[in-house]
Amino acid sequence: MTITLNQLSKTYEESAQPVLKEVSVQINDGEFFVIVGPSGCGKSTLLRMIAGLTSISDGKLTINGKLANQVPPKDRALSMVFQSYALFPFMTVAENVGFGLKSRKLPSSEINHRVDDALAMVNLSDLRDRKPKELSGGQRQRVALARAIASEAKICLMDEPLSNLDAQLRAKMRIELKQLQRNLGLTVIYVTHDQVEAMTMADRVMVLNDQRVQQIDTPINLYQRPNNAFVAQFFGTPQINLLKANVAERELVIDSALHLPMTKTQINNSKVLVGIRPADVRIQIGSRGANARVATVSYLGNQSVITAVLNDSQTIRIVADSQLQIAADDLIKIIGVEDFHIFDINSQKLIGSQKGDVSDARVAATEF
Amino acid sequence: MLESLPQNSNLQDPDVQSALVQITTSARWRKDSLYVTLFLGPSLLLLSVFVFWPMIKTLYLSLFLTDNLGHASVFVGLSNYVNLFKDPAYLSSLGATLLYVIAVSVLTIVLGMLLAVAAQQHLQGIRFFRTIFSSTMGISVSVAAIFWLFAFNPSVGVFAQISQVLHLPEINWLADPHFALLAVIITTVWMNLGFTFLILFGALQQLPSSLFEAAKIAGVNKTTQFFKISLPLISPTLFFVLVVTLIDAFKSFGLIDLMTVGGPNNATNLLVYRVYQDAFLNGNYGLASTESVILTVIIAIITLLQFKLLGKRVNY
């Protein structure tokens, strides 16, 4: 089951402002495809357009080679899992799972068989006669999943299905969902605002922001080769540093404290944004030749996140070994940067990336 | 309390302990009963004067023959009750009342539900209709009565005009014993609709949309969605509306008094109106009290039955 979106747009009748602009992508059979973005970016709207719950203003939606713009939801051969689970409170677990099947007029033996299988798959066979209100959040989530499984639709749409669960359960369900998807060979389109969910579960991710597609790529590529500053900032914890830099001959100068030599990239702009992952910054403690002052230190167990202020008051986040004896107001010296990305300061688009250690980074000492 | 105990008494002694418990509990009880009296007092007083005392007095009077001033004169035991159930006029009143109550309740809920479902549709100008549908809530009984008196008028009324245009036989709605009750039923249902519509519409609007979206994707059609999802979910509201409408219908008085005065030929002489007639027009307070007691018992039994039979099927 492939799904093709061709220049899909959505404008609500009441407003002139579109909520989605020209979204195009082909989602492949058996793919775990994640749509991610901040709230209000239109990701749920896009999912509802694929489901047929929201009309399409412009563009073409093709499901398995057939134009589906006007096809009613029930004939799109898909199932959907809602954030609120959408369980019927007065029905038992088994009735909830079998509800849709009854209205498809399947024989009752077939319905029972499917319900049993689906409940077994999500480990809920023992709770089949309970009402939803007697279940925990995680169990309700499983009932919603079982309902999707029992429909035997090959496409499953999920709208933030894990966001009502606590952190530990969410981590567990992420793994279970992914296994389920692979075992059943489902094509999953999964909406979330959580970058960790996107990174851990997706085969490919679509990043939406400002009503537009920012990038569609594998999690690795999104992290290593972001199209623009927004994507770079969206993935990775702690967030990537985006620092303003002046372009000099063969080097980028950040706050006259940090000089990054450029090996390949030719740049016409005089100012750029440099993106440096906090884990790619290497530091030394000590006032000799120092170029930054520590503002905060957050201890995270195996590592610490340090924020430090460069001399023209730009702040840089650094991931350091938690064994490092460091406190606020200490002076540090940034001695090297591993990879960095260069973005246009106005359009925020990627100009170039530089791989490899630049440990010979010439570092200017700063007077504090 | 503790100060009154001898200084050297052993507090571990079980006798002393139980004495202490008694002292403290009785003190707390005294303090609590003060609060209970303060909080319940005003409403108990009001209820006693306006509800409990009249209730007891009615029960008492129903066992007596009374004089013109309503004073009990001769004790007759249950013979008031026995006589009533032998009186064909009273039995026909009882029948008319049951017919009226059932018709009003069923029509009010079915029509209210239809209007509520209609008002849920996303159509142009639906807000205007929502206001109109609920507008009878703000209309007083007297205004409604006058409005419908005009509508049922055999010479200038809307119904007369329509039957004239369609060449249907002329019906003198309020003067014809066959149609008078129907006319009163139509008016009552019309009066009830505003409230019922508003409550049912509110209940429908509160249902989470994701349930219906899930049903839509599963291929459940609109009719099944209504009967299998909406109805069970609003069943508590439906039950509430049914109880209120039923009790209200039993107590109907104003419309009857203004439209038919119990006539023609007692066709619309419902139980409450008969109580009024017997007490305040015929001066037979004993009999009227008996009728009141019977009406109260009927309402109590039906309400209890509703809770027994329907209460179990309601999803809270």
Automatic annotation (TrEMBL), chain A:
Transmembrane segments: none annotated. It comes from the Bacteria. Keywords: ATP-binding, Cell membrane, Membrane, Nucleotide-binding, Translocase, Transport. Residues 3-235 form the ABC transporter domain. GO terms for cellular component: ATP-binding cassette (ABC) transporter complex, substrate-binding subunit-containing. Pfam families: ABC_tran (PF00005), TOBE_2 (PF08402). InterPro entries: AAA+_ATPase, ABC_transporter-like_ATP-bd, ABC_transporter-like_CS, ABC_transpr_MalK/UgpC-like, Mo/tungstate-bd_C_term_dom, NA-bd_OB-fold, P-loop_NTPase, Transp-assoc_OB_typ2. The keyword ATP-binding applies. GO terms for molecular function: ABC-type transporter activity; ATP binding; ATP hydrolysis activity. This is Glycerol-3-phosphate ABC transporter ATP-binding protein. It comes from Secundilactobacillus mixtipabuli.
UniProtKB/TrEMBL annotation, chain B:
It is a multi-pass membrane protein. The chain crosses the membrane at residues 34-53, 98-119, 131-151, 179-204, 225-247, 292-310. Its main location: membrane. It comes from the Bacteria. It holds the Pfam family BPD_transp_1. GO terms for cellular component: plasma membrane. It is found in: Cell membrane. InterPro entries: ABC_transporter_permease, MetI-like, MetI-like_sf. One of its GO terms (biological process) is transmembrane transport. Residues 94-306 form the ABC transmembrane type-1 domain. Keywords: Cell membrane, Membrane, Transmembrane, Transmembrane helix, Transport. Belongs to the binding-protein-dependent transport system permease family. This is Glycerol-3-phosphate ABC transporter permease protein. It comes from Secundilactobacillus mixtipabuli.
